[in-house]
Amino acid sequence: MFVHTIEYLFSPWTLLLIALGTWLGIVVGAIPGLTGAMLIALSLPLTFAMEGMDAMVLLIAMYVGSVSGGLITATLLKMPGTPASIMTTLDGYPMAAGGNPGRALGLGIAASGVGGIISWCFLISVAVPLSAVAHQLGPYDFFALIMMAMALIALVSDSVIMGLLSGFCGMLCAMPGASPATGEIRMTLGFAQMNDGFKLLPVMIGLYAMGEVIIMLKTDKKKTAKVNMDRKGMLMSISDWKRHGVNLLRSSLIGTWIGALPGIGANVGSVAAYTVAKKYSQNPQDFGKGSEEGIIASESANNATVGGALIPLLAMGVPGSVIDAILLGAMVIHGLQPGPLLMTQNPQAVWSLAGALLLANLLMTGLMAMSVGWLSKLAKVPRHYLIPAIMVFCVIGSYGLANRMFDVWVMLAFALIGLFMRRIKFPLAPFIMGFVLWPIAEEKLGAGLMTYGGSLSPLFTHPVSCTMMILSFLMVLIPVWKKLKPRKI
Amino acid sequence: MVNHRLKKITAALILMIFAGCDAQPDTTETSWPARPIKVIVPFGEGGGSDIFARQLIRAIESEGLLKQPMVVINVGGAGGTIGSRRVRDARPDGYTMLMLHEGIFTAHFAGRTAYSADAFEAVAGTGRMGMVVAVEINSLIKNLGQLMQESAAKPESLLFAANIGAPSHFGGLMLEKTTPGSVFRFVQYGGGADRFTAISGGHADVSVFSVEEYLRYRESGLRALAVFSSTRLAGIPNIPTANEQGFEVLNSAMHFWWMPKGTPTAICETMADVIGKAMLSSQMQKVMAESWTKPVMLRGQPLQDELNLRTKSIGSVSLRKITVLPDFPFWIGCIIAVLAAIVLLKKMRCAKAGLSSPAVFNRLSLISYFLLVAYVLVLAMNWTSYAMATAVFIFISGSLIAPRWKSVMLPLAAMALVTGFGLFYLFTKILVVDLPG
Fold it and tell me: Residues A367-381: pLDDT tens digits?
């Protein structure tokens, strides 16, 4: 059976599909405004005519490519190509702007590859037990977990209070529209268009990509940053591996675990790994200013979520992320019924999918490493070509999400809000994370409250949720307390 | 310099407007369909509805039943109401239709929409998918009788995983109504996969699933107590119906096809013919057999009867207001107010800091922003085609930004045309997305 699987995976046609999917994913992931979910959803009907396995292999390769591609624009232009690479902008861009784009990209790519491969090892070894553990977590446990992620993100910014304020503002912006807990429509100001609220993609494109475009336009055109095209430092040396090994492993583990939890994906994974890396780092003051550890943590974790998210999908038929939900649909169309039976009834399919994931990760690393040279030139493309093209993609990306012009207007409005936030030095990352996490948090909190008849006490009596709640309170309170203490003396 | 730029902008705007004056194709009934038909699926890509719609359309195309292609447009959000509202407001010319299951009724009775099925012309109902009520495999509850007895004896003790306000919630409410005194405690879990996770993790006791979902999760630990249909289902002949066990619940999922109110009857009839023929194709029969869907196709009076029956049965249960949730926006607003006050106080204490960052706009970025707004406005108003507007926009904004306009004119024009028409081709022809403009 293994011979068949390997024969299938290494046939020229399969390899071609994997390469094509990975490459398309990287390109789409790199373009701000287009995401992997969009690519996979739009490609799904095109695969109707294909063999079932071929189609799944292609889609999985796209998934891997798209999570990785985001780091290119995040690093070079400070525009996260996908939500998963928001954390990479914090360190990747300062490093690239400081004259080391090759090194910044190289670290990100290597970390992506390692993250993907480590999570793949988990996928093939512990898929079943891991997804069983994820199953045991109840709504309050999830809520506490998300609270912890929120506390983490507040810590990333310079001032904890500003970080918290920004995070809560993001949460408020996520509220208009249908409540995730009850479906009731609220805060729409009477506009039916608002019934679905603001979607993540237009908000993120507006805040980051459009905001950065406008800032690029404002900055003096003569002052173009010197780009060091030196390829040296791009490939990680042995001492690099030694220095970053622990960080790589830890961030990949965090990413895999968070990816395996249903409903929260790459975004949370990279935030959690980034903050943990900062905590354990010997040079935490470098984070946000071009720290190598920051890039590695964010990129290895977001790639690790791909393998992690496939664990519940292949083991139990439960999608671990939005893209996995689309993949589940694709499997059904192509006659592969996901669930525990898949492993016994069609083991070759499972092994082929897992193999395709590994190959896609390897190919992704290779493709990206080969193209670092011309990718870093992207930062040197004249503005009059680059900026209009990015603007057009921002518009089509916001529109294509749900085929609504409303989302494009939202994107334009949030571009202005983002500029205002930069003006008053209001941190952006907590805002967008509050925005992303609140709907999940509210759904889980709502489910918990409905289960326990409105009582919050189980949140503190169940061991898992209690531990996480205490940790998140401590994480916020300790820095505040530390800051206050010297002043009193 | 500024003057020069303004001239360029005016010229371009005039160009954009002129390019939009193309003739409208005629939409008389005899020539229908003269252009592609848009099928709005009010859910995201890859979901059950989306897959069904795309497969049926594929069958229509491969059988050559229509002169023009049908294009699926996913307008997801707010439980399908964003998409249904768009079709309700669309021109009744036969070029926009909606595929939406019984969510159209549940959204109405859950108070999310003021309109229901009667705001549309019903074209056809396709594929009946059974629903089952199921519990965890090791649950002490073995049949529907025990379940209802338990919930009547201890009201509000059984946790019912539901998608609040959606068909699975109404399924539970209908079940409740069969036994006086029985009350489930409904908990929001969302889609079928999430409801299954809740049950297998022991966080909920019971839920309603479609037969397809049930078959997917059966081996992972799900036990069906009853099917909500009049006869036992082919795929699961050993599961008794609710009626057999003495509870009168009839509930099933069905994909309905709608057109805006006022669409000519002849067009609706033609469309129903086409859908009916596609349903009979071997391709569609195979698809439905694989997903355990009964290959029924309703139109005309039987369809009206089915719709009336659903309106009656869904309308007969009453939704309880969920009272256990706090007013989240209020509390978050309070926290923001407190934090903002702290930040402002701190700012006031050290007033020297802050506001040192320079202005975010200069003239160039402001003009570019407004140009972008103008471009979006042109697209939103459908004044010209997407490809044209995009090419013109790229050209103008590029030449505004370029330091020396003349030297980049040619490459910029080439890039504008390639990007504009290239994107148009890629999205409309290959990815089949409906672009604005």
Answer: 988 887 777 676 677
Q: How confident is the model at residue A131 (pLDDT cuts 50, 70, 90)?
A: low
Task: Find all residues with CB under 8 Å of B184, minimum gap 6, and list them.
Answer: B151, B156, B158, B159, B160, B172, B175, B176, B206
Say if the Cβ atoms of B51 and A333 lie within 8 Å.
yes
Partner residue opposite A317 with nearest CB, options B81, B112, B216? B216
Which residue did the predictor score with more confidence, B253 or A312? B253
Provide the mean pLDDT of chain B.
85
Interface subset of B 199-228, CB within 8 angstroms of A: 200-204, 212, 215-217, 219-220
Give yes or no for residue B397 having a pLDDT over 60: yes
Residues 92-111 on B with a CB inside 8 Å of A are: 110-111
Most trustworthy range by pLDDT among A321-330, A335-344, B236-245: B236-245
DSSP designation for A174? T
What would the CATH number be for the domain defined by B129-252? 3.40.190.10
Copy the structure tokens of residue B205: 């006791």
Give the chain A residue whose CA is nearest to the CA of B337: A165
User: What residues of B are in contact with residue A319 (Cβ under 8 Å)?
Assistant: 193
The predicted-structure confidence for A53-62, as pLDDT tens digits, reads as follows: 899 999 999 9
The least confident of B95-109, B234-248, B312-326 is: B312-326
| Residue A411: pLDDT over 80 | yes
Q: What is the pTM of this model?
A: 0.84
Residues of A in contact with B212 (CB under 8 A): 332
Domain that holds residue A57: 2-484
Give the number of domains in chain A.
Answer: 1
| Chain B residues within an 8 Å CB radius of A222 | none
> Could you tell me the residue ranges of all domains in chain B?
2-22+360-430, 37-127+253-316, 129-252, 326-357
Q: Tell me if A423 and B78 make a contact (CB, 8 A cut-off).
A: no
B18 pLDDT band, cuts 50/70/90, is: very low
Q: What is the DSSP string of B96-143?
A: EEEEE-THHHHHHHTTS-S--GGGEEEEEEEEEEEEEEEEETT-S--S
Residues of B numbered 268-327 whose beta carbons fall under 8 angstroms of chain A's beta carbons: which are they? 290-291, 322-325
Contact B95, B75 (CB under 8 A): no
Residue A489: inside a domain, yes or no? no
CATH fold for the domain made of B37-127+253-316: D-Maltodextrin-Binding Protein; domain 2 (3.40.190)
Residues of B in contact with A333 (CB under 8 A): 51, 55
Cα gap B408→B163, rounded to integer Å: 56
Residue A222 burial class via C-beta count within 10 angstroms: exposed 0-12, middle 13-18, buried 19 and up: exposed
Q: Please indicate, yes or no, if residue A92 is contained in any of the structural domains.
A: yes
